[in-house]
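Last lecture ended with a question: if I hand you only a sequence, what can you say about the shape of the protein? Today we answer it with a concrete record. The protein is Acyl-CoA thioesterase FadM. Below, first the input exactly as provided, then the predicted structure, then a couple of comments.
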Amino acid sequence: MKHSPTTAGLSSAVNLAATTGNGAREAQAARSYGLRTRPDGLVELEFSHTVTMGETSSVGFVYFSKLIDWQGQYRELFGIERIRNYMETLGGDTTMVTHSCSCQYFNEIWFADRVLVRITVPWVRMQFAQGVFEYYRATETGEVLAAKGEQVWMSARRQGNVFSPGPWPQEFLDATRELGADTSRALVA
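The predicted structure:
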C-alpha cells in the first residue's frame, strides 16, 4: 500500500498492526513503502510523497531545502518500520547522528506533484552507514529524476553532551543486510 505518510499517521498504523494480533496481513496493510530490488542487488525502499502548498514557494516549486528535510523524514520512517526497537532507544546513551548530507538538484518539483523517494543503504563501515536518496517526479508518462542525495549516519554513544563512535546494534545490521548493504566492515555491538 502506498500513500503519503506522516510520522503520526504511520506510528498509529504500525501500533495498530502490532496490537491487533492479526500479524502479517495487518502489518502489510500498515506498511507505507514499497520494496524493489535493483540490478546491482540493492533493495530500494520507495515512499510516495504528495507535495503540499506549505512545501513550495509562491511560484509553486518546492524549496530546495525541503528535499534535505525529506531525507530526515524518510530515514526516520525507514527506522520506524525496519529497525523500530533501535529507534525507540535513541535519545539515551545510544544514538544515530547525521555525519553529513548532500543533495543534487536536476529538475523542479511542483505543488501537487507525486514524488517517489527511494532509499538504498549501500554500506555500513565501522560506525558509519550510507543512505542514498533518489527523488523521482511521477508523471503520466513515467518518472523524471528530480534530485539525488546522500546522508552518512554515525552510530554514537552519548556521555553528557559528548558523542563518541559506537557499534551498530544487530537489528540495524540485519535490516541493512536485507537491503543489500555490505556490512562486512561494520563496528558490531
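Comments.
1. The chain is about 30% helix and 40% strand.
2. The CA atoms of residues 42 and 180 lie 5 Å apart.
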